[in-house]
Description:
By secondary structure, the chain is α+β, with helices and mostly antiparallel strands. Helix content is 53%, strand content 14%.
Amino acid sequence: MEEKDDLTSLTLRVVIDSYENILGIRGKNSVLNFAKLGKFIDSPPDYTEDEMFPQEYADRIIRSSSVIIGESGTKAIIVRAGRDTMKHIVINNEAAKMLSESQDMTPRDKMKALLNIYAMEINRPPDFEFSDEGAVFHNPGCTLCDGVKTEKPFCNFTSGVFEGMGIFIAGFDNIRCEETLCKAKGDNECRFDIIYGG
């Protein structure tokens, strides 16, 4: 399968909005400048899916915030940014809003559908394990930590995205996600253990 390295203007915009919600305008602007994406300070992407941007832009934002804040202090902020991104997507994407409001699917079925959609969006072959208690998402083709070397798992934003899917779309109250393997640590894949929690 050919890897897709782009994202919609909506996705990039909600990532930027999430950083502004957490770090404030000046903090967000600092991250954008550090990521060499200052062009989005005064002209952010539209809330549409009409224009495409390189996936690298979102990766640079996330990596830059980690450098600015520091690896040890950044996990909680970046997980929250990932969650907040999903909250913004529900507000700005009609399909996500309809799925979140659907009464025809259980939260577990919604989560399964969401993980399949996510795998299609990042154009990676889906590799999941599902149980009544949770799911495991395997991503041997992770672009977020490509070229990064750390001692701890790096892809906290993705963990937050999975938690946000569970909270804002699937309807779980206590969902949590932990990255248990990470290519940045030298593992062969990034592995995310998602625990539904009720």
